Amino acid sequence: MKQSCYALCEADMDMMGRIIWFIETHFGDELTLDEVAQAAGLSKFHLVRAFGMHTGQSVMRYIRSRRLSEAAKRLANGTPGILDVALESGFGSHEAFTRAFKDRFGVTPEAVRKSRSLQDIKLVEPPKMTEKYSEITQPRLTSHDAMLIVGLRKRYSDATSAGMAAQWQAFQPHIGHIDHQRAK
Predict the structure, then answer these.
(1) Residue burial 156-172, b: 16+ Cβ < 10 Å; e: rest
(2) pLDDT along the chain (184 residues), means of 10
(3) Which of 13, 59, 75, 132 could staple 17 via S-S, CB 3.0–4.6 A?
(4) pTM score, whole prediction
């Protein structure tokens, strides 16, 4: 049933509309960037670029904010189990959910449930489909001669990303001494 609805709705929507529609209709699923890109018919690169340009945030941040917003609504309506809301929102633990919730809204889930109010909480709602979202340019494909890219290889995590500057410094003495190097 979802497939036929998707095919029917897809014909009537622009690209950004399809992206938002797909995210909103697969809200409870564990969505990946690959799945959203495939549903939109875009590469991950183009999806990230276009979505960020039109919404001001990344795809995955939008999904997380939407899930937290819906969780806040359930909590304000008196849902008894915070852990149930956390699990339904894609979080593996009460602690992870509480930390993300507080980072997003500045209050704890317990406080929202207790107050039964969304006052002073900035929820993220799905954007209205306006002309603003209708003009995403299609990716431009170009061909170039083959090229060899040279660099120093090292992997970084969020915790070690500060080391990237040192890697660039380590590479600088090689600039200008690489065979067939072209100036910028």
Answers:
(1) eeeeeeeeeeeeeeeee
(2) 40 71 86 90 88 86 92 90 89 91 92 90 80 56 82 81 82 84 73
(3) 13
(4) 0.62
